[in-house]
Amino acid sequence: MGLLHHMKAKLGPAKGKVSDLAQRHEGKVHHGLEKAAHAVDKRTKGKYSDRIQSGTGKAKGAMDRLAHKGDNGPDAAHTTPPRDAGGTTPPPNASGATPPEGPPPTS
């Protein structure tokens, strides 16, 4: 048994406990993140406001993934939507028209 496999086996029960705690206290953690972000933003006088908001958003996202990991199976945090599942339309080209479907014409 390899070292990585052995470590995963030992940390498995702890991961479940952490996920359970994250679910139970999700609101408190989000509130704490907002409060900390506000305090740091105030102390830096808004100089790093965009970075603080970005970091706070990433921390909240990680917390959400941890709290809801068991909701959609073991790989819920690593799934991506299919390519054709909606989304945005391609940007218009220089003439203002949307680009045609298919490969570009060859000269």
List the helices and strands and how they pair.
Elements: H1 3-24, H2 26-43, H3 49-67
Helix pairs in contact: 1-3, 2-3
Low-confidence stretches: 73-89
Count, helices: 3
How much is the radius of gyration in Å? 22 Å
- Kindly report the average pLDDT value: 75
The shape, in one word, is extended
| Secondary structure: helix percent | 55-70%
| Number of strand elements | 0
| Biggest sheet details | none
What is the string of helix and strand elements?
HHH
Distance between the termini: 59 Å
Structural class: mainly alpha
Strand content: under 5%
Description:
It is a single chain. By secondary structure, the protein is mostly helical. It has a domain at 25-70. Helices cover 55% and strands 0% of the residues. It is extended. The model is unreliable at 73-89 (pLDDT under 50). Residues 1-107 are annotated as: Disordered. Residues 22-50, 61-72 have a biased composition (Basic and acidic residues). InterPro entries: Antitoxin_Rv0909/MT0933. This is Antitoxin. It comes from Streptomyces violarus.
Give a brief outline of the structure.
Helices cover 55% and strands 0% of the residues.
Q: Which keywords apply here?
A:
3 helices, 55% helix, 107 residues, single chain, mainly alpha
